[in-house]
Amino acid sequence: MNRSSSTKERILGAAEVLFAQRGFDGASLRQLTTAAGVNLAAVNYHFGSKEKLVEQVFRRRLDALNAQRLAALAKVREAGNGRLEDALDAFIRPALELSHEDSGSLFMRVLARAFAEHDDSLRQFLSENYGHVMRQFTAEFARLLPHLTKEELYWRIDLVTGALTHAMSGFGMIQRKQDVSEGAHREQTIQHLIRFAVAGLTHP
Amino acid sequence: MNRSSSTKERILGAAEVLFAQRGFDGASLRQLTTAAGVNLAAVNYHFGSKEKLVEQVFRRRLDALNAQRLAALAKVREAGNGRLEDALDAFIRPALELSHEDSGSLFMRVLARAFAEHDDSLRQFLSENYGHVMRQFTAEFARLLPHLTKEELYWRIDLVTGALTHAMSGFGMIQRKQDVSEGAHREQTIQHLIRFAVAGLTHP
DNA sequence: GTCTATAAGATGATAGAC
DNA sequence: GTCTATCATCTTATAGAC
After folding, report:
1. CATH homologous superfamily, domain A1-48
2. Boundaries of CATH 1.10.10.60 in chain B?
3. Which Pfam families match (chains A, B) (predicted)?
4. Which of A135, B65, B109, B143 has the most CB atoms within 10 Å of its CB?
5. What is the pLDDT of residues A61-95, one digit of tens each?
6. Could you check: is the Cβ of residue A42 within 7 Å of any atom of nucleic acid strand C?
7. What is the residue-wise DSSP string for B172-199?
8. CATH class of the domain whose range is B55-202
9. Which nucleotides in chain C have some atom under 7 angstroms from a protein Cβ?
């Protein structure tokens, strides 16, 4: 059994937790390797640098998320006369499912940090690797809302994205109540978001 | 003429810029005092610590913003049978005006960082000092949307807040075009947001 | 692949002269 | 109020033994 992959995974897991809690600069390699139970030098050995490690933390979650989104969108398309609700579901559900996973909420905080950082190299990385997903969804929304000008459509998609981002981030005031299961709460969030987005996208 | 207030102001200005660009941890007192053209020791002399300086950077903008919001809300109330659009305008306009000011967009990035930090002491500071504003607006929305349950209303306000936050942050894909003036673009954003929010709040 | 030891440098805070 | 000098501590990265 090769220990290297286990070491890599342990580092990635610890990095996600610590980047969420303390930020990319705030989490030191010392804290990180200690938490992962590996040697201080292991990060540079396995990833090359701290920055490459950050990139891998993103890839691990976002590759899966965007594959799910595109697969769901493809299903909506091939089903023929898709409804707006279904396209929105394809866009929203994988994202919210990720954000409600055990370590997913941690990752959401990592993502929020990345956006707040406003770091161009990181933004470029995200746009290069996942920009095509947004473009495919925009094209589908344009097909389903043919009465809107491009300008108007972009505005509305932008605001939907804002609402989704906010819901994923967990910053809002809505907290899951004790008598509601995790899964039920997620489904509630998805349904609220979809109805809200449909109203916002289709109003005259 | 007392130089101390000028030194304090120069520090606050430089801090806002550098906190936005590099984060609270990322901006060192050395970079900060150099940019402000003051001595390294001046921050600790005038503010006590780096953390107290951060607090003052927030106060300078948020005290003004929330006073404007409450004044606008009071006007809507005293005008009698207010419309939902007017209450939303009171909530949204001061925020978006701040975010479009010269140094306002910088401050928005500072604010985004604070949320991403998820730092409890900072969140507590914000909630203690400005939480009553949100409560007053929620009460007004409840009055204007009596058919919604409290539960449903909270969800929808939360999603509106998400869209507003996103619009303020400037993360979105919508960029001002060259042939549109700064003021016209801001007004466009406000109108899009209000119409989107009205649709999202009132849908059946 | 993993370890220790250490290089080379930045950081927040403060003491004390002016 | 402002300055310099410095403390104690932290950081990333690497060299070299095992």
Report:
1. Homeodomain-like (1.10.10.60)
2. 1-48
3. TetR_C_30 (PF17939), TetR_N (PF00440)
4. B109
5. 999 999 999 999 999 999 887 799 999 999 999 99
6. yes
7. SS----TTS-HHHHHHHHHHHHHHHHHH
8. mainly alpha
9. 1-6, 10-16
